[in-house]
Amino acid sequence: AAISGPDQCATEYDVCWKINVIGTIKFISKAIERNCCILFFSSDAVFGNIPGMIYNENSQTRAITPYGRMKKAVEDEFKGNKYFKAIRLSYVVSSKDRFVTYCLNSMRYGNMAEIYHPFYRNCISVQEVVQLVIWLINNWEGMKTPFINAAGSELVSRLRIADEINQLYNNKLKYIIVKPADAFYSNRPAITQMESLFIYNMGIIKREPFTRVIAKALEGVKI
User: Fold this and answer.
1) Whole-model pTM?
2) Rg of the chain's alpha carbons, rounded to an integer?
3) Where are the beta strands (DSSP E) in the chain?
């Protein structure tokens, strides 16, 4: 269990640190004592915010947000341990992720959606993350690096996601573009570019355009 909201991690830092770092480290330590392999879900937030940088698995982690520092603290505690690996998630797209659900409900109820822009990530689908997890379970020793970046091949904005949804649902999504307040960006960079040296080159996940990725994620979802 963890608290994954960047804003909550900032406003309730001490409580979140106890849960996300102290409790997580204790749990992982006890599991490793029993020779359990641990796959930790980390975040692209561990890298920080260097303009123009495309982070890969070898990039230095310079987390600046409270949420990023919490994920980095757990990574740093166990890096080099043969029983520990971390998947660094970019924005994971699914039919039930928070933003897509917001867009779908806006269409269902005829509401005007507000799309924060700019906000960019290398989106990856939940189906692709599941593929990666299954591969790692079956090929633990085959992945030599302790860190794996779960990132799509395209840098995608929330605005792009909204437009892709409109392509799939005959322009039913009505929206306005909103520039977030500075406080929004204080806990999450406007742009985080992340790539993987492994997941595509090793054939773990097939490289596909985001248009196809989101179409698969929303396949069968009715409005």
Assistant:
1) 0.94
2) 18
3) 38-43, 54-55, 84-89, 92-93, 113-116, 120-121, 124-125, 147-150, 156-157, 175-178, 191-194
